[in-house]
Design a protein that fits this description.
By secondary structure, the protein is of the alpha/beta class. It has two domains: 2-59, no CATH class; 75-241, Collagenase (Catalytic Domain) (3-Layer(aba) Sandwich), CATH 3.40.390. 38% of the residues lie in helices and 14% in strands. The protein contains eight helices and five strands; from the N terminus they run H-H-H-E-H-E-H-E-E-H-E-H-H. It has a five-stranded mixed sheet, covered by helices on one side. It binds zinc ion.
């Protein structure tokens, strides 16, 4: 039917060659019409597809940029590391984990430097070669160690081979030992046996000036005996306090 119609039109136009542009025009229109027909067909198919498919993929847009999680900036906590003889762990082993945990509170550590300290202070009291530490009082070894501050007036992290009471780490802050510990000597000690989150746990004790432990084992400040290492949540109060 369609081809017949076209022949008819073509024949009529051949008799009058003058309106050749019109022929072209009509041919073009014919093409256009056929294209339009195909196009309409495609649209019809598209409509049918649309009825079967969820609309979401068709109207999907680029997601809006995520809001800045730290609109007030990221707080940097300067820290200087000292390695005592026999220590095998370094602050660089703890840096990534520490910063990942502190990111919950828009904070991070900034390592200002480090020292490998050739000292025999761990031979002051028996047992030798371990850091003698007490929960009741600052031992001579702890006092001597924390008085050594080659990094100046920043928090110092001391890496020791082991701690006499068997802990993975400990911390020293103003309110410790009944407020007897000098706040200028705020410090952390980390043993070779430390877990990935020991350093940041001890660091937060110092920043909060609080040796208390959280009841939730998923919290960073749960005690070492109950804490789910690797979860290390921090709550709003902890973030506000550091
Ligand atoms: Zn603790």
């Amino acid at each position: 039917m369609l081809s017949y119609t076209h022949k008819q039109k073509g024949g009529a136009l051949q008799r009058k060659p003058q309106p050749r542009p019109a022929l072209k025009s009509r041919q073009i229109r014919g093409e256009d019409e056929r294209s339009l027909g195909r196009s309409l067909g495609n649209r019809s198919v598209g409509r049918m597809m649309a009825q079967r498919m969820p609309l979401a993929p068709r109207i999907q847009r680029d997601p809006p940029p995520a809001p800045d999680p730290c609109p007030d900036g990221v707080r940097q906590i300067d820290i200087f590391a000292v390695n005592l003889p026999g220590s095998t762990r370094t602050i660089y082993d703890d840096q990534t984990k520490t910063n990942a945990v502190l990111a919950q509170c828009c904070a991070r550590i900034n390592i200002t430097g480090g020292e490998s300290w050739d000292t025999n202070l761990m031979d002051t009291d028996a047992p030798h070669g371990v850091l003698n530490h007490s929960t009741a009082t600052a031992t001579t070894e702890v006092q001597d160690m924390t008085a050594h501050r080659p990094g100046g007036n920043v928090l110092h992290a001391y890496y020791v081979p082991s701690i006499s009471i068997g802990s993975r780490g400990s911390s020293f802050y103003a309110s410790r030992y009944g407020g007897a510990f000098p706040s200028t000597a705020n410090a952390i000690q980390v043993a070779n046996s430390a877990a990935d989150d020991t350093m940041v746990h001890e660091l937060v004790h110092v920043l909060l000036d609080d040796g208390g432990h959280h009841a939730d084992p998923d919290n960073l400040m749960a005690s070492g005996g109950t804490r789910n290492v690797g979860v290390d949540n921090m709550d709003a109060a902890q973030c506000a306090g550091i």
